[in-house]
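Let us practice reading a record.
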Amino acid sequence: MRRIAAFGLALGLAGCMVGPDYQRPRLLVPAGFKEAPGWVKASPADAAPKGDWWTAFGDTDLDRLEPLVAVSNQTLEADFYAYEQAGAVVQETRGGLFPTVGLTGSATRSGQGGGTARVSTGPGTSGTFEGSAGWTPDIWGKIRRQVQGDVAAAQVSAADLANATLSEQALLAADYIDLRASDALIALYRQTVAADQRSLQITENQYDAGVAAQSDVITAQTQLDGAQAALISAGEARAQYEHAIAVLVGHAPAELTIPPGVLMSVVPVPPPGVPSTLLQRRPDIAAAERTMAEENALVGVAVGAYYPDLSLSALGGYSADPIGGLFNVGNALWSLGANATGTLFEGGTRSAAVRAAEFAYDQSVANYRQTVLTAFQDVEDDLSNLRILAEQAVAEQAAVNDAQRAVRIALNEYEAGTQPYTTVVTAQLTLLGDQQTALAVQQDRLLASVSLFQDLGGGFNAGDLPSAAELQEKLPFAP
């Protein structure tokens, strides 16, 4: 019996595995990014993302908030448990590679009561004690292929968790930048209100001196009222960004208050490297690649349905009536059995299942290639956005400087009586518009930087995914 069990175990674990072995499809990857040359010299290699990528922005409040995403964010917690579930499925499937062993014991006390026509017998006790084992050796590798598929699925779940974490971290960084942009806009509107108050005072003085019309005073007052309304409106957007940040770090909005601060002036640009590195740095690409491995394994599972199953069973124990001397050799019993089952005709369902599995694999290959192409596009877009926005920032700052000079000149000429007040109003509105645009450009540059960090993987590496051995380590005898 031990020999049969040992033979079956060796047969099951050393048997062949039907179906195709996984080979990662080859890709035509460009040698470099089209938009990268302008950033190479300004971005040394040691500036590449290494985990806490947000520290490149040099903001202490952002550095304090970002680690809370992975700890307290409820969306990520749900993704974490999805990964844990996928790991449990691996162990559940792998358990099918091993025998099942059972133990049964029973005792029955019985007697026969007699009347006038029957002989009465006293009560007696009978019993059995049996051990049983059953096993279906994985001769064709159907279970092992399923394990391969479940391992790949668990790795997909791990990559999805990493991608979700990166997405939430990037969303927090974007919301934080928008919050600081709102702070900067509020500061700008306060400066505008103060300037409009000075302009109003000038018009009132001119009117009192009889050198300006009352309409100038009314125009200046109207402009001040509009600036004050804009200042109040900017506070609404800031509050919403603060609420969003609170939820991202796992708190109710009432539990988090972020004091006003300044918008970051330095825009970090991580080096993009070469396109081929994205295949290892992007968690969404890692998920797509592991999905191909899963679908490939499921083709093997479908092919395995063509082959017969062999089941082995064994039983041994004791049975005695009466129960006294149950474990005597004379009361021993045993049995060994083997059963083979196969299907001779099934109307083409198995061949259809194989074709369906192959089509699912082909679909996963196409999705993988599209994911890689989209990743290349994302990085190119980020690099071009950063380059163009940097040029626009220079132009906008020049426009702001010129508009500030125009306001000073217009006010001086108005006080001298050589220009109407409409010239002052026009200059002031132009200055405010240029300042708003310059602020928006700086905000867009910082958001593009966050997007580039995210599209470069944020420090993720495909080697961070759990290995097949790690996912199966809770069960013995790894095949």
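A brief commentary: The longest helix spans residues 142-208.
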